Amino acid sequence: MRPGCCAALIGLLAWTTAASGYDPEWGTLTLEYENDLFAGEDRYYTSGVRGSWLSPDDRIPRWVRSGAELAPFFSKRGELKLSYSLGQNMYTPEDIEREDPPPGDRPYAGWLYFTVGIGSETPRRVDRLQLSIGIVGPASLADKTQREIHRFTGSPQPAAWDTQLSNEPTLMLSFERQWRSWLGFGDDGWGWDLTPHVGGAVGNVFTKVNTGFTFRLGRHLPLDWGPPRIQPALPGSGLFRSRAAFGWYLFAGLDGRAVVRDIFLDGNTFQDSRSADKRLFVGEVQVGGAVNITRRWRLAYTHVFPTREFRGQEGTQDFGAVAISGHF
Check: CATH 2.40.128.140 for 6-327? Predict the structure, then answer.
């Protein structure tokens, strides 16, 4: 990187954000699939699926804009976007073929949820505020989903979904901030950046605070904030802006969390249920890559290596995440 070009690089980022021809007419659709099958396992956090829709820049209702302008954590210069997501998470004990999992093992649980959020983006920072409502328990349909998938793939059938957490409505408010603390462009289209993050959530699903960073390195580096991930996770975004018809990057990230509440380990809030002895401090390392094609599509793969989440956990568990995003 040439000396003294920091200001020029920031200006280039701002110009590309404003002037690139990517701008979708209707928005950006992202489909995500997380599963431990990518690591050859079938336990603990075993599956997550989510579909998300992100509005185009600044195309939001006037009353939403007025509310966002009152929020002290949103930049007055930020471009505002609305997001909507529908997802399902699935959790199981260490051995799904046991008819009576031992006390202290991770309980069976599912979560079906809908999330609405608002985000504010500047060339150097993005803030996201999200509200999730949903249901934990049989009404999440996680037991039926896993049984059907295992029937289709010929995998062993789970034996103890009748021990899962009971039905419980869920409500969670979360906030994330990412900022580009280091950005560089080299010769022949090479680029790199470092984006630290902070965030937190309050609710009967997760109550936590977290912090960490993501480092990206690639050619014709798409202007994004890392591939999206399903909570709780290192943050990313369905938002991306292509700088060329073809671009790619590799990335590595670290996220540390202090978890006060995790319903999938602590059990139901208002009634007795199975539970595990949750660890207060947990984290994860993630590595992967992303590629954008024809300025309109991005495909990403992330491999996640979490720390142990509860006492008595049999080893660690890694899993993979695939995400595809497209502009429409």
Answer: yes
